[in-house]
Amino acid sequence: MSGKNDSEFFYPSEEVKAQANVKDYESLYKRSIEDREGFWAERAEDLEWFQKWDKVLDDSNKPFYKWFVGGKTNIVHNAIDRHLKTWRRNKVALIWEGEPGDVRTYSYHALNREVSRFANVLKSMGVKRGEIVTIYMPQVPELPIAMIACAKIGAAHSVVYGGFSHEALSDRINDAQSRVLVTADGGWRRGKITDLKKIANNAMKNSPTIEVCITVKRTEHEVYMENDRDFWYHDLMGLPIASPKCETEVMDAEDMLFILYTSGTTGKPKGVLHTHGGYSVYTSTTHKYVFDIKDEDRWWCAADPGWITGHSYIVYAPLINGSTVMMYEGAPNHPYPNRWWQMIEKYGITILYTSPTAVRGLMRFGDSWSQKHDLSSLRLLGSVGEPINPEAWKWYHKVIGREKCPIMDTWWQTETGGFMITPLPITPLKPGSATKPFFGNEVAVVDDAGNEVKAGEVGKLVLKAPWPGMARTIYGDDERYKEVYWKEFEKQGWYKAGDSARIDEDGYVWVIGRIDDVIKVSGYRLGTAEVESAFVSHSDVAESAAIALPHELKGNCIHVFAILRAGMSGSKELEAELKNHVSEVLGPIAKPEKVIFVDSLPKTRSGKIMRRVLKARALGQDEGDLSTLES
Ligand code: WTA
Description:
Shape: globular
Strand order of the largest sheet: 12-11-8-6-7-14-15-23
Helix content: 25-40%
Strand content: 15-25%
Bound molecules: 5'-O-[(S)-ethoxy(hydroxy)phosphoryl]adenosine
Distance between the termini: 36 Å
């Protein structure tokens, strides 16, 4: 990003400014920093509590911060129950369209009935407060219904993205020690069935803790069901136990709401843990302020609920804010590249929130697909997952937003629960910058010693103060939580985001990308270690190193350098076989773009693979400091 882009502002229109929920960023930001607890207490008061908190922030055991201590709540009370007492009872909560074109809608009243019925089913299966239910599903309404049903009865959910392999699923079930798995026979993607139940069956072979598997019928193809373990969702929902009345469990603010696995620097995925209280307050506030949520909005976050973006901004925040949520099952370009634009027109979507990779993917098909449609209902756009390149930003702004919709480029992470650095609708925008910290947050870019670098210089992104939506720990591994996020700047008490960034003269933050061994492919997060261990699980491979290289559509793609076992030689066929192997072990998103067979890998004297050297070589760049390279 050149200096030229830095100075190029896009100003919001008077119309956008006039209706914005927040009219003055600077003064509210100042207030939120000077009196952080007061600011968050006020936001928390917008929600209903069974019992008010005694203390807003307990920082007596850093970095294990607690928020709204002593408060009693349940996210479902705010996401559903309280709306039932108002006119919103009859408001549309969820509009869902399947890829084949089938449509289902739920009012808040209807959603409550489904959630309550499934909550009673879970109870009848012995699901208890505090236990973790694993959910592995396509994008169908039963996915949010199952999540909310767990939360309602005080169980936690662990949603595993429907694109993951049986091994990834089984690892996650085992880490969470889940007894109950909720899945579906399959889902639709580009006219084809993804056979989720088959994958789930394979996963359960290596996951002995599962006693009950509940399967939603979606694609209706033949699947294997095991006696005494497997139940059809619709059969259970037809039983008298599935009554539409179910009490919402009273939870402590700090009780576990969910864990969500995400990739880190080592092979084992981390179960990032979020809680009922702080997460409710943080996600709903960020959603309301950043996307300027109004009752008449139709909100579409086109992510998969299996990722944090979906948890926070398809399911919880919009429902807490009483929004009408759009959800779509399939691919954006099926059967044609106008599928999304067609749905925006048909449902009168007012806000679209998606990823740079989706924008680039649709941009590829040209302007005419969207021009066929009336997109005048749109008033705001959003982006998340990776830096958005200015070219894609401008296309999104001009062709989709018709130059009247500001783009909210929101920087955040699974661990942060909600938006951390983001514009508001009133913010003058610079394409490619996530602009400024959200209220209550203090952001800095520092060098290894923790000194703030000069404006425009690149350094490590840190968050200097706690916020209510922060992860509480890594499930079952407090030490790892400390080690990964808090150790490097322990003295200062800062959270290390793992991203590199720079802040320009106007105080705008430009996130560059990961500094650790995490690769972002199409906005999805993968660890180099996961890819490498998938590689060496193939009998022909002795050692491997995975790196991310820039890719026009995906943002990044994976290249793997592989050393083969003695006697083996590389070939096109083996490259194809290895790519498929990784796709099977980890899921299709991890499939490498290229496999390069090598005889050795650059390593430090202590034996660590120097991936940056491989990357520099692949890009034809200077290899940098090689003093630690083993000779
Ligand atoms: C990247 C996704 C630039 C970043 C919500 C972060 C971004 C990682 C942006 C977290 C953005 C997310 N601009 N980079 N607007 N949003 N990232 O946990 O590298 O899947 O650390 O959460 O995505 O990925 P995660």
